[in-house]
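Sequence in, structure out. Go.
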Amino acid sequence: MKKTIFFLIAFYVHISWQTMAQSEPTIVTLNQCIDAALMNNPSIKQSENEASISKLGIKMAQSGLYPVASVEGSGGLSDQYRLGNDYKFGTARLTIDQLLWQKGKTKSSIEQARFLKEASIASLEASKQELIVSVKKIYYTCLQQNQLYLVAQDNVSKAELFLEYARERYKVGNGRKSDVLKAESDLAEAEFEKESYQNSLKQSQNELSMLTGLPANNLLLLADTWQVDNLGTYTKQADSLFSIAFQNYPELQMMNSLGLSQQAKIQETIAEFYPQIGVSAGYDWSYNPIIQRQNSWYTAITLRWNIFNGNEKHYRLQSEKLRKTNYDNQVDEMKKFLIKEVSNCLISIREAESQISLTSKLMKTTSENLEIAKSQFNVGTGSMLELTDARVKDLSAKQKNIQAITAFKNALSNLERLTGNNYENKK
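Output:
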């Protein structure tokens, strides 16, 4: 009996502990969200498969360095067999062919496959970087909506307090009924705004859940990386950011690799204008009643040269060169794009830094002004309109500060996407 009671108590404690562990949300960091997104996103898995296929393409191209061995055989009967003559026959052949020279055609094919592999790896990296910046922006949006919700919640508390002030003054005969009505209207508006921000927060959490594959319930508590403590330290390397972007931007790396692959394709096409020189060896076996020698072997040097095929090779060479020109043009266009986007990011970062500094000062001023308005209203020298105006300005200053921080973090994420550097980890 005692053992049964002890077992039931232990089981109850275990179930209670599991329930508490599941009910208490854990803090989810930005890096955890990024890792989950990279692990669960179908597009990343598809790009990884494409990279694996391109690696196999190198091995396929390298197979041209090895000889080709083939076996063939045949057998049958002649009409003489029906007349009683022994005329069954059969043949078998083993051949080995090895290409010795065609102006580096096989080497060009291998180079082409190698650069295609590098392009697919750069494409995979581009997909990862695009997903990372998307996760960052949604993560920061969640933090922004949470901050706005907290500010709106505090605004509701202040509106409730001011309503109590107005009612107390009205009860003792020092206030007007219009002040009470004004305070009630302000409270309703503040509650409406709070509900709006709460719904926006839930929507952002759902978007983050879709990107990361994490349940939305696990994203209720995000790590607070909201404050920006090192303003003015991100743009000191502005002179070298263009060259860093040219070196690290994965789409540009991919385009450069495709251009090099196309150059190897041109060399492969040029090689087809030259003859193929190879060596062949084989062994033949045959059975035929009228032939005494039943088997033989051979070896030979072969030369094959396609002299004319309707100028198809000339046209194909011209088309391959035009494709190479297109890749070069895309590289130039992408460099111009990087210069423009990096410059715009720097402008956005400087603008956001300025707005953060200005709104921080504004919050201090509006907070002090709100305290003064509260004191004046309590002693009867201020009106509800002045108090409401001070509260709204203080709320607006906090909201602008939150929006400025979000703009700063988004601009920084865009710069990281372009340059491949994580500036948030640099102090």
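Check: DSSP finds nine helices and four strands in the chain. The two ends are 65 Å apart (CA to CA).
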